[in-house]
């Protein structure tokens, strides 16, 4: 069964502002802001910045660059984890 898509969330990772196109299993692409409109609707397809895997690891070009817990919701000081959703 494929994961279900959830509403996108604007996040920051190491100073990069991104859209997390997340799934209900905690995975999902981290897309550059220009790939989505202000509501998170995808407006163009292109290479993602990185990808969050269901185990929480974040990978870019095959290298682990962080963990889901490193994502910070923009405008919110909380970090995001699989248990927090969104």
Cα shape: globular
Give the N-to-C terminal Cα separation: 20 Å
Sequence of secondary-structure elements:
EEEEEEE
Average pLDDT, all residues: 86
The beta-strand count equals 7
Percentage beta strand: 35-45%
Task: List low-pLDDT spans.
Answer: 82-86
What's the gyration radius in Å? 12 Å
Helical proportion? under 10%
What's the domain count?
1
The largest sheet, given as strand count, sense and whether it forms a barrel, is:
7 strands, antiparallel
Number of helices in the DSSP assignment: 0
- Which class do the helix and strand fractions yield? mainly beta
Strand order of the largest sheet: 6-5-4-3-2-1-7
Structural features, described:
The protein is mainly β and 86 residues long. The protein has one domain (9-77). Helix content is 0%, strand content 36%. The chain has a seven-stranded antiparallel beta sheet, with no helix packed on it. The protein is globular, with a radius of gyration of 12 Å. It starts with 8 loop residues before the first strand and ends in a 13-residue tail after the last strand. The model is unreliable at 82-86 (pLDDT under 50).
């Amino acid at each position: 069964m494929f994961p279900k898509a959830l509403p996108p969330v604007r996040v920051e990772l190491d100073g990069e502002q991104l859209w997390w196109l997340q799934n209900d299993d905690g995975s999902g692409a981290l897309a550059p802001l220009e790939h989505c409109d202000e509501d998170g609707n995808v407006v163009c397809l292109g290479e993602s910045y990185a990808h969050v895997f269901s185990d929480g690891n974040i990978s870019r070009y095959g290298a682990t660059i962080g963990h889901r817990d490193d994502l910070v919701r923009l405008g919110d000081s909380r970090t995001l984890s699989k248990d927090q959703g969104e």
